[in-house]
Structure formats: structure tokens, C-alpha cells
Write a structure and sequence with these properties.
With 197 residues, the chain is α/β, with parallel strands linked by helices. Helices cover 33% and strands 29% of the residues. It has helices at residues 16-26, 54-67, 81-91, 118-125, 136-143, 150-162, and strands at 2-9, 30-41, 46-51, 72-75, 98-100, 131-132, 167-175, 178-184, 189-195. It is globular.
Length: 197
Amino acid sequence: MNLLSIGGSDPSSGAGIQSDIKAFSSLNAHCLTVITAITGQNTSSFGMVEPVSQKILIDQLNTIFSDFKINGVKISMLYNSKIIKIIFEQLKNKKIPIVVDPVIKSTTGGILLEKTAIEDFKKHIIPLATIITPNRFEAEHLTKIKINSKKNLVKAAKRIQKLGAKNVAITGIEQKNKISDFILDADKSYFQSGNKI
């Protein structure tokens, strides 16, 4: 199985393309990659972000899709509107599952999606999603709904679904000693929970 990860490079391998390679490989999938931006970060601090040129981004996409049968795509860090529009144009007619992980800010505070690109992300990328997997902060950022109750959690998920995502998983909801993901698909909603580590 060939899975394509589209996102940023994290030299510490804690996130981004490097983390996806590890995750996909552990599931016996071949991970192909398209890098949208290069970051300088480690486990405690965030340095710089430098998006790749439009020319090399398009070339990466063309060379991968011309040579491999892609069984699924994961989209994470896109950084700016130019990158968002290129990814949309390349994927809008592909009949493959697409997971969208709306990366907005790193754990250490680095900005991974420019504020001016949020509306383009909503317009072009969310409708591509077979499933979108925002954490609580990202869901609040995309919907402008404060997730402080189950009612608002459901409301935020439904608002994201109305933007075009077929299924929504809002991750990392803390409930006592549990961590839960709230799943909303076409006709039902439910929690998947595990013990907090």
C-alpha cells in the first residue's frame, strides 16, 4: 500500500513528515512524501519556518503521482494560501481517501498556518477530507466555538462537517482520567476513549 504524506519537515522527528514515515512504516505501508515547508524545531523550542517554492512543490507532486498508485493521502502542514491552492488543484479530482490534519500551531508554539490562509484552508482543503482530525484547539480555531461542553463539542464537529468534510474526529478531549476522540460521521457520533498516560 502506498500512502502519501503532504506536510512539513520536523528535524526532531517528533511530528511532521518524519513522524508520518515512522507511523506508516509501522503499519507496513510505503510512505511517499511531499514537503511543503521546512521547520527548525526540537522538543522544547520552535525556530524558523521556510515554505518551499511553488515550483518544487508542484514538481514533487507531479513526480509522485506520475510514478506511483497512491492508495491514500494525509495532508498536514500547508502554511500559506499559495501552498493550499496548489494542493487543492492537484487533489480535487483524485478518487482516493484523504485524511486532513489541520496543523495550525506546534506544541512548542510555532505558527504552522498563516492567519491569512485560514479561510482558504476552509474553502479548499476541508472539502477534500474523507476525515478531518483537529485537536480541540484547532477545532475551536476553525469554528470560533469554545469547546467547554459536550453540546459545543457536537456543535463544532457539525460546523466543520458543514464545511465539506465527510467525517470529523476532534481529538484529545480530556474527561477525568480518560483521553477521548469525538467522532462524527454521516449518521452517528460517538467517543473513542483510552486511559490518560
